[in-house]
Amino acid sequence: MSVSATTARPQIEMVVADKSPLVLSGLVKIFERDDRFHLVATAADGERFIEAVERLNFDIGIIGWNMPYLSGQGVLQTLQKSSKTPRIVVFTGNASPDIPRQVMRFGGAGFCPKTDHPNVLIETVLAVAEGRMVFPFMDMSRQGTDPFSSLTAREQELLASLSRGLTNQQIAGDLSISLNTVKFHLKNLYGKLDVKNRAQAVACYLNTSGA
């Protein structure tokens, strides 16, 4: 009996999602040339990734954190309500130190920054596929201190627009959304930042960004 036949493991089936076509292309190249993985599909945003979860069976999802339509946090929160739950590795260029904590809080299995070598991402996926969790060191005695890490991509856009002094009507026109939608997002934004109005939100944004 062949030793390789007895020790061969099934391929790890994966779906990757990122807003950047360049990043997606790079991930495809990394995993398609490694026989340990089978890349089932790719997605350009969080909503399409959730559609893939509903349509396909796969083991691991690699997702970005700041994605259009549905952020990485939104993906994780949606999966918490789903019966189909692939293990999720967040792969992001967002340097906020609070994101790994958020990923763990919302049920992610691993975290890998885009600044790491591709081999680190591969090893992270392998470990997660074996049932382990992979995160950088975090002082869990400290509460999260970065309120901006919980903002969706749309809320981040609105905050940037507020900092430029735009009115609600101007924001609606710039983003091609209704005035009511702007008001809805602003209400959520103020709640996450624990502020009462746009002036306080802008002050919080400027103080944190150093602008």
Question: What does this protein look like?
Answer:
- The protein has 211 residues and is of the alpha/beta class.
- It has two domains: 11-129, 3-Layer(aba) Sandwich (Rossmann fold); 151-205, Orthogonal Bundle (Arc Repressor Mutant, subunit A), CATH 1.10.10.10.
- The chain is 47% helix and 13% strand.
- A five-stranded parallel β-sheet has the order 2-1-3-4-5, with helices on both faces.
- The radius of gyration is 19 Å and the shape is elongated.
Structural key phrases:
5 strands, 5-stranded parallel beta sheet, 211 residues, disordered N terminus, Arc Repressor Mutant, subunit A, elongated, 10 helices, Rossmann fold, alpha/beta
Give the topology.
Elements: H1 3-7, E1 12-17, H2 21-32, E2 37-43, H3 46-55, E3 60-63, H4 72-79, E4 87-92, H5 99-105, E5 110-113, H6 118-129, H7 153-163, H8 168-175, H9 179-193, H10 198-209
Parallel strand pairs: 1-2, 1-3, 3-4, 4-5
**Outline, from the CA principal axes?**
elongated
What is the CATH architecture assignment of the largest domain?
3-Layer(aba) Sandwich
Please indicate the count of domains.
2
How confident is the prediction overall: mean pLDDT? 86
